[in-house]
Amino acid sequence: MKKLVTILAFFGVLAFGASKALAQEPTDSSKVATEAAAPAASAETETPASDAAAAEEQSFHQVLKQKFIDGGPPFMWPILIVFILGLAIAIERIITLNMATTNTKKLLGQIEDALAKGGVEAAKDVTKNTRGPVASIFTQGLMRSGEGVDMVEKSIVSYGGVEMGRLESGLIWISLCISLGPMLGFFGTVVGMVDAFEAIEAAGDISPSIVAGGMKVALITTVGGLIVGMVLQVLYNYCVSKIDSLVNRMEDASISLIDILVKHKLSK
């Protein structure tokens, strides 16, 4: 994922630089005119350009603010609050899931070395000093190593379900925000359409100026709700795929741990 973002950013910088160079490349006649111009004139042209860029950036924020107002604060505020809550939960889940990722091959190698040198207690120290659900499952399994391999396997399976529940905590709220955002947008759509038809009924005419206000509210709220749903859906799917990857690693590592314990007991 990081490599993909880096590559896209690199090509984006190249494209921006190329387009900027082409836009600023003057013709032969313009080069002569530029060389003949005074430095003061170039300084005067740079200032309006910077002012124009600042005005353009400000106008973008003003457009967003105006669209928010046109959509109707009673409808847009709930959509914005749902988006902020869903985004905060999704970011927290992404950070937590990335921190829960463990290098299972390295951990298994450390456990095997610890079992060979210091026994089960040394292996427990290794797992307790390692963060992540895989290390927690290994700790539970090693605690039951004296009761036989079957008890170790049952302990790993039981505690694996607990760790999986912890990984999936919070996803239900992201799913709620994904559903609630578009629903609030469609609610604003229905209210806007009702206002439009009420205006038509009051005026007795179907001119565009009469229905424009209600239609604007309907369309803007719909767009806002759909944006919330699309953004949060992408983050939700990323979290689900990350959890699936962690669960697969947990299962593979658990089988490898049992094999290591069996090998250690046989050699012992």
Class based on secondary structure composition and strand pairing:
mainly alpha
Give the H and E element order: HHHHHHHHH
Task: State the helical fraction.
Answer: over 70%
The overall pLDDT, averaged over residues, is: 74
Number of helices: 9
Query: Largest beta sheet, briefly?
Result: none
The unreliable regions are 1-48
**Could you tell me the radius of gyration in angstroms?**
30 Å
Proportion in β-strands: under 5%
Query: What does the overall shape look like?
Result: rod-shaped
- Number of E strands: 0
How far the N terminus sits from the C terminus, by CA atoms, comes to: 44 Å
How many structural domains? 1
Short description:
With 268 residues, the chain is mostly helical. It has one domain.
Give the arrangement of secondary structure elements:
Layout (H helix, E strand, L loop, with lengths): L1 H23 L3 H9 L2 H33 L1 H27 L4 H25 L4 H11 L5 H20 L2 H33 L4 H60 L1
Question: What does this entry look like structurally?
Answer:
- The radius of gyration is 30 Å and the shape is rod-shaped.
- The chain has nine helices and no strands.
- The two termini are 44 Å apart.
- It has one domain (78-268).
- With 268 residues, the chain is mainly α.
- Helix content is 90%, strand content 0%.
